Every structure is written in structure tokens, then in C-alpha cells.
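Note to self: keep these together.
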Amino acid sequence: MNLADPADIFYEYLRRIGHIVDLAAEPGVPVSVLHLGAGALTLARYIQATRPGSEQYAVELERELLDFVLQNLPMPEGTSLHAHIGDARDALADLPAQVGFDVVILDIFSGPEAPAHIACREFYEEAAARLNPEGVLIVNVGDEPALTLVRSQVAALRQAMPDVAAFAETGMFAGRYPGNIILAGTRKPWPAEWTTQLLARGPHPASVLTGVDLDRISG
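Structure:
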């Protein structure tokens, strides 16, 4: 964690998520974001640094983790962050009904340990219902080379959102090694210019799969 420069993100998969958030609105414009899985609040710091004034909600199952992070890695001055302790799916129902989000980020599960009540179409539909009309649902999927979880989550997200894209290191799509694939669901057709910008920003090498190119992942 680089507290002096929150826009400096170490992990590649988090940088990819950040680059999708960059496309969710015009540069520098504040957005409303829901983080399901808070971790070290890396992305919350990134969003505050790149979009000051953003309203952010963070849900974390482990109270001890969130307490440790907030005590030892203070958030940037001016951050508007509402922290919730509990299950991600329960938190969706507990949030104020009038609150809608420009971005919802799910960073909870990986491989066979993915909780069934979250890694499913019904959960994605509930999350999508909290999005604003131009909102983006971003899901980090960590998986083994067979990409069993990735395939199931692409299929589930496609049932819940009008369009879906997958963004990752190019070799991940060949199933060569374990790693992370970022899925992004949108309420409108995936913009071709977003693919161009994500490929330019990296990290490299990178691939973005949409439409029929994504069919081979979802089966």
C-alpha cells in the first residue's frame, strides 16, 4: 500500500479494476461506489485520489480486518467512506433503498471456495438492481487453469446484465496458470472504445473479450 500515492496500485488485477472504474464517468468526476469485499481499501483509496468527492460504501465480513486497516492505514483526507460489517448479499438488502451506485465492485471469492449464495445469477441481479442507469458491475474472479469458476460466473453475469466483458492478462484466457479475470457487466452494449482504452492502459499483455469472443469462456 502506497499511502503517499494511492493511485499507485501494486497488484495487476486491482489495477485492471481501477482502469475500468476510470471509464465509468468523465475523468475526475465523483462517482458513487459500493465495494463488496473491502480488503485493505486499495480501490477506495484509488477512487478518492482520482475522483475526489466520491461517495463510497465498503462491506467487509471480517470486522477485525477492517478495524486493522482503518487504524493502521488511514484513508486519505476528505474520503467519504461508509463501512459495513456483514455478508455481501445481506448488505445489499440493508443499504438505504434510495442509494444507487455508478460502480459496484465484487472482490470476494476465488476457485472452489466461492460462496454459492454470491457466485450466482440471483446475486448479480440483486447487485445490478442497485446500479444507476449507466452503472457498471465489476467482478474479480480468481480461478485455477481450468477456469471452471470463471465460466460459471460469465454465464451467470450474462443472465443478469445486458452485456459483459472479460479483462485479464492474455495468458489467463488460455488456461495456462491460475490467476484473476475481471468481469464487467454493463446496462448498455459494451463500448468498443472502452476495449481500446483498457488495452492501452494495461497492465500488459492484456486482452478484452466480449460478444462471441467471450462465448468460448462461458461455454
